[in-house]
Amino acid sequence: MEIDGKPYRTIWVEDPGKTVGVIDQTKLPHVFETLTLASLEDAAVAIEDMIVRGAPLIGATAAYGFCLGLNADSSDAGVSAIYDRLYRTRPTAVNLRWALDEMRALVDNRAPAERAALAWERAAEICDDDVEISKAIGRNGLALIEEIAATKPAGEAVNVLTHCNAGWLATVDWGTATAPIYMAYEKGIKVHVWVDETRPRNQGASLTAWELGRHGVPHTLIADNVGGHLMQHGLVDMCIVGTDRTTAQGDVCNKIGTYLKALAAQDNGVPFYVALPSTTIDWTVADGVREIPIEQRKGEELTKIAGRLETGEVVTVDIAPEGVPVRNDAFDVTPARLVTGLITERGVCAASERGLKGLFDR
Question: Which residues make up each annotated binding site for substrate?
Answer without folding.
Answer: 53-55, 90, 203, 254-255
